[in-house]
Amino acid sequence: QVQLVESGGGLVQAGGSLRLSCAVSGSIFSINVMGWYRQVPGKQRELVATISRVGNTRYADAVKGRFTISRDNVKNTMYLQMNSLKSEDTAVYYCYATPSWGQGTQVTVSS
Asked: In this predicted structure, what is the pLDDT of residue 27?
């Protein structure tokens, strides 16, 4: 079972950008689908984006055109580039690679 560690969260003004990273302890080459999720207090964790081993991507409607998910199978790292951030993007962001979750990283967007 792999271990996942997110980084790159922080405080940013609306309209700004952040890039999240998810470092994986083992090889991700054989992991078919990896993804990013987010959660705000009192709400269910929701899907942000997923990426397959061959690079097929899927995005939540709320982030389409603003966020880009990618993975580096050599560096065993997944990324989430977040542009044009909005206050409603404020959440704890988690990376996921079956069956493991990271510990989460806080993203706060000030308006």
From this structure: 83
